[in-house]
Amino acid sequence: MLQNIAICAFIITLLSMSMKWNSVLVWPTEYSHWMNMKTILDELGQRGHEVTVLTSSASIHVDPNKTSTIKFEVYPTSLSRDAFDAFVLMVVKKWERIPKDRIWLHLSEMQEIMWDFSDCMRNMCKDAVLNTKLMRKLKESKFDVVFADAIGPCGELLAEILKIPFVYSLRFSPGYSLEMHSGGLLFPPSYVPIILSELHNQMTFMERIKNMIFALYFNFWFQTFNLKEWDQFYSEVLGRPTVLLETMAKAEIWLIRSYWDFDFPRPLLPNFDFVGGFHCKPAKPLPKEMEDFAQSSGEHGVVVFTLGSMISNMPEERANVFASALAQIPQKVIWRFDGKKPDTLGANTRLYKWIPQNDLLGHPKTKAFITHGGGNGVYEAIYHGVPMVGMPLFADQPDNIARMMAKGAAVRLDFDTVSSTDMLNALKTVINDPLYKENIMRLSRINHDQPTKPLDRIVFWIEFVMRHRGAKHLRVAAHDLNWVQYHSLDVIGFLLACVATVIFAITKCCLLCCQKFAKTGKKEKRE
Amino acid sequence: MLQNIAICAFIITLLSMSMKWNSVLVWPTEYSHWMNMKTILDELGQRGHEVTVLTSSASIHVDPNKTSTIKFEVYPTSLSRDAFDAFVLMVVKKWERIPKDRIWLHLSEMQEIMWDFSDCMRNMCKDAVLNTKLMRKLKESKFDVVFADAIGPCGELLAEILKIPFVYSLRFSPGYSLEMHSGGLLFPPSYVPIILSELHNQMTFMERIKNMIFALYFNFWFQTFNLKEWDQFYSEVLGRPTVLLETMAKAEIWLIRSYWDFDFPRPLLPNFDFVGGFHCKPAKPLPKEMEDFAQSSGEHGVVVFTLGSMISNMPEERANVFASALAQIPQKVIWRFDGKKPDTLGANTRLYKWIPQNDLLGHPKTKAFITHGGGNGVYEAIYHGVPMVGMPLFADQPDNIARMMAKGAAVRLDFDTVSSTDMLNALKTVINDPLYKENIMRLSRINHDQPTKPLDRIVFWIEFVMRHRGAKHLRVAAHDLNWVQYHSLDVIGFLLACVATVIFAITKCCLLCCQKFAKTGKKEKRE
């Protein structure tokens, strides 16, 4: 009888494994994050999965008209598209203005930005999950997994409501706080530079102090003060006391958009995979006019200049400084720029409102890349082996360029203060000093030489979670411990108490013996 | 000019990458470790690499006559094969007799065993590296990488002498001390059970105390007292002050023979890959007589009983207890046993001096596996999905069975004290309770469902190290820090001193103010 039950259970398991498991619900974020995620969704679509993206009516880049393999579920939100765009640009501007030389001001202004961003995200999330019609539709769709960018919370709440597992994609969270508090990752501050600190992994004593301050700040302060409103909102929606960080900790897999060609090696956990650079592809041919311009550069080659998808313009004075430097190099320059044509623009420089960045970086004539240091662009430069001149503006851009500098593949300039001469020298250095090309080629080889391609690993893990309804075997038991237990404070306290008791008992015994001997001595003396 | 240098450097790099890089020098260990390693070496051989195994004349299992794809370099050693065999068996016997219920006796006896083993390994290593003719030959052979089992040091010394990178294979070191002190792995004692403690990852308060004691013991005591002789020996050979653990820390990659189907998930580092179960293969057909016997079992199926490659015999009384239990089950039993035929042996049980373990575990008739819990056997049971009755004897065997019990795939018995009834009940449980089959099948699915097969990953990483002359991009900066820096004690001290100074200054100011006010008050009163 029991044997038959065993066989039945086995058959049921096999059947459940062969059943349909290909329906993915996606909670995306905007700008470069979406460009990144779309690569994954397209791949999932091509492999026969049903991909549905939940997006608000205010969405800027998540455009239902621009894709065919993905379905979109657009929900109305009180924010207009223009207001959302203006909000994001305001956040960027605020971040760019943060004074980097005063650590406490730096941290407190950064926190204010996070709060603004967090409030906006929460409103978007509210508009989705409190939309009963939408939620009913999603429940009826019987999704197998939620795939979300962890930087914009809500994906885990959707997964809780729909009672399905979820997988995260993440570039980084401020100070690695999510990876630490929800993911369970360890970040020893002695050799892991906390993100946004702009430090290397080889730190001096003073740098390790700065890193420790960043670690402490993000560890205690940030998480205690910022997340209460999220906890309250999640508790209301789910009808039980819920903590955002604990809900996020239920993620089956964390797909971190970084790898050891770009980042500094650090401790990880079995349910973390580092898939940086998965969006990079071999270059496609350039538009004819651009190709002709590139070929006209002869042996000198081409320099590509862009400050990313969010910045296509800049103050006139800055544009003239850059144009003047670029006019002095023998290379041809392809510059993504949407402002007034600079007066100092050289004949070797052409302006474009949009450029095919990956195809340009993969072009054999390309010698250098002037970049703001966004994760996607830096990865394309690594993939194609192009040394960089970095002019970071905000978010992880300074850290990205710091990493490339530490690996000898980039020179850093300050966007606001750099002179023409400095820019000229920086360009000459990365183009003519063979070490920069050597170093970026080394990173490129590391990037290309992995046991499995990052995009294949991403698809594998999302499919794995759908096949097995989760990946609990990769989850550390740390998630079941409270703070005191996790840090073994109760155990250490108990052991110290034991040691103290033993020392006390021994001391007491010794004292008693001494007293006894002393008494006997006195007695003998008296006798 | 500089540009030409860049191009030349690039061409040289490309040329060096396309040059020959396929010569592997192997430092193996014995028994099941060798059986494991041989699977890798055969695969390397089949993929066109030149594999040379350095082995002593006393070697027991590393037999030059038993293979065709691998070359052997046999060096003379003072120890005879019989003496070495006797020594290993003596170590095993000693370990089996360790009292498990008294923690300090347990730990100190275990340490004595490690020392005996360590001394023997050092003598073997001395015989190799002090053999000048052998060393000259090895230098002339221009190997690209050393591949060694980290449990028997010497591989890293050979790599230092030959100035080439090295890769480790490792099941575990006592208390994870090598993985921690040389590999840089973190083992938070609150949720990572220290190996040899026989604990699970879900620990009670008392179990966490036991785990902390094991962690502290292996952390401080073991490494401080046991390794001095190795340091001295390495320093003499290399002619410079050398520390064993620091030399081992230079390993490019650590291939750990475990995975999350078997082990509990825990923190890792980018240069660690978990490749457990790589030796498992689909079952080949059984010898005809064995196949007929298995088929004769009908729907009841077969039970496989073996205590591993080191134990083929046992006391008569024990054999009779086991035989009597086996005689009472409806299954047929295939028992690897080389002693006197037990009087209580049932008609359903057949004794064999040797069995094709993997083929038997993969046989569709196999219902259960009675095992000592050796890593290789447990992995084969996971691979083929066969629930276990474990009778662990020594080393990691109790921990392996503890892991299988925690995952609901095994029942544990005590070899020395188990009665026939207990064994009968245990067998009935794992065969008839469907949960055991379900659980082991779940582990089996995890084992089969990985982005890349473990054996492919092993070969990939060995080839990677040969192609790139190392894998430094995966190495954490922790290796460059001393103990104080690594634990941030200097930083914490400095910050505490700062805080103390500030508190002191504020208190002093407050006191001064109070005194001033008090004086003014008195003055006013007097007036």
UniProtKB/TrEMBL annotation, chains A, B:
Keywords for the protein's UniProt record, in alphabetical order: Endoplasmic reticulum, Glycoprotein, Glycosyltransferase, Membrane, Signal, Transferase, Transmembrane, Transmembrane helix
Location of this chain's protein in the cell: Endoplasmic reticulum membrane; Membrane
Keyword Endoplasmic reticulum: yes
Principal location: endoplasmic reticulum
Transmembrane segments: 491-514
Matching Gene3D superfamilies: Glycogen Phosphorylase B (3.40.50.2000)
SUPFAM superfamilies to which the protein is assigned, alphabetical: UDP-Glycosyltransferase/glycogen phosphorylase
InterPro entries documented for this protein: UDP-glycosyltransferase, UDP_glucos_trans, UDP_glycos_trans_CS
Signal peptide range in chain numbering: 1-23
Membrane topology listed for this record: Single-pass membrane protein
Species in which this protein is naturally found: Galeopterus variegatus
Enzyme class: transferase
Protein name per its UniProtKB record: UDP-glucuronosyltransferase
CDD domains in UniProt: GT1_Gtf-like (cd03784)
Recorded catalytic activity of this chain's protein: glucuronate acceptor + UDP-alpha-D-glucuronate = acceptor beta-D-glucuronoside + UDP + H(+)
Keyword Endoplasmic reticulum recorded: yes
Domain of life (superkingdom): Eukaryota
Documented EC number(s): 2.4.1.17
Family: Belongs to the UDP-glycosyltransferase family.
